[in-house]
Amino acid sequence: MAVIEGDDAAPEAVRPVVGLLDSLQLGLTWVYPEVGEAAEAARPSDAAGSTFPDSARAVIDAADTTLFGSTSGKSGAALGYLRWGKETFANVRPCRYLPGCASPLRHPEGIDFVIVRENLEDLYVGAEGPLADLAALNLVGRTIRKPVHELGDGRYAIKAITREGTERVVSFAFDLAAKRDGKRKLTCATKHNMLRGTDGLFLNVAREIAADYPDIEFESFIVDDFACRMIREPERFDVVVMPNQYGDILSDAAGGLLGSLGLAASGCFGSDYAYFEPAHGTAPDIAGSNIINPTATILSATMMLDYLGLETAAARIEDALARVYADGSALTPDQGGTATTTEFCAALAQAL
């Protein structure tokens, strides 16, 4: 397993989780590619100052998977490679209530759904520029009814949705709905009423693929309607698939249903590679304080174990984690407790 600890407070969650997995004697071997500041320090004479050298790429390529802590800085180049270089097209974001967690909802019981976010396309292809560049195209906006470049001094961003990209992420989501012990339902959320070409394509492809899964219930919502329903009735959902930008925003909002992004795990899956990371970011405001909630990293690690075929070990950890939350005496400050990261992980080890 390649391990990239990440930046700021992220390593404070990754290190004890690696130790926890080692204690289970699963036969995992950890390798640590030099990325970010570590890569710069190892090559001070390198004028380019590479934060992601070829040697680090080789370590990742040779590993079965990668556990990534979270980045806000120089280790970001490695994350870009894991995502776009390895073409990990499906970002899986579980949202499951653990009794004892500090949800802001009055009745969070029954929340257990997964957002599958297309991870490579949409506005995140990174094609932006001045509106003036569009003059040569004389591109007329359907709603504004005039050439887009005539709007004035501004910028544009390209939203790219492809049939191939949509087919693979929607098929992935249907397969996940078929495997889960859930409601056997897939929900598609798009803004097809306004973005008829791009989001319309995404929805139409989803409808086509739904015909290949007659045992899975299929439904669709305009994404703003879905956002409201996710808060009002989250228990009704099972697997939800959506384009990149909506998934980025709403998967974090789903973490809010549980009371903290400290519980938000994430896995990014491609055709032949996957990597796993907590979704909470690097928490620079608490770096060095030993109070980061390691739950998201733990749950990301259990997703990794499932991916590796170590389902029994993953289930053991998740069961022990549920008991730690139900007990409530070793929770971190984001969950209303006073425990340190070290104390939380010790309680989890004891539960195991």
**Main sheet strand line-up:** 1-2-11-10-3-4-9-7-8
Q: Helix share of residues?
A: 25-40%
State the CATH architecture of the largest domain: 3-Layer(aba) Sandwich
CATH domain class of the largest domain: Alpha Beta
| Largest sheet composition | 9 strands, mixed
C-alpha Rg (nearest Å): 21 Å
Would you identify the CATH H-level superfamily of the largest domain? Answer: Isopropylmalate Dehydrogenase
Q: What is the H/E string?
A: EHHHEHEEEEHEHEHEHEEHHH
End-to-end gap:
22 Å
CATH topology of the largest domain: Isopropylmalate Dehydrogenase
Summed up, the domain count is 3
Q: What's the shape?
A: globular
Please provide a brief summary of the model.
The protein is built from eleven helices and eleven strands.
Can you give a write-up of this model?
This protein is an alpha/beta fold and 352 residues long. The chain folds into three domains: 1-102 and 260-352, Isopropylmalate Dehydrogenase (3-Layer(aba) Sandwich), CATH 3.40.718.10; 123-158, no CATH class; 160-258, 3-Layer(aba) Sandwich (Rossmann fold), CATH 3.40.50. It contains eleven helices and eleven strands. The strands form two sheets. The protein has a nine-stranded mixed sheet with strand order 1-2-11-10-3-4-9-7-8, sandwiched between helices. Strands 5-6 form a two-stranded antiparallel ribbon. Helix 6 links the parallel strand 7 (185-190) and strand 8 (217-222). Helix 1 (10-23) packs parallel to helix 11 (341-351), helix 5 packs across helix 6 and helix 10 crosses helix 11. The chain starts with a strand and ends with a helix.
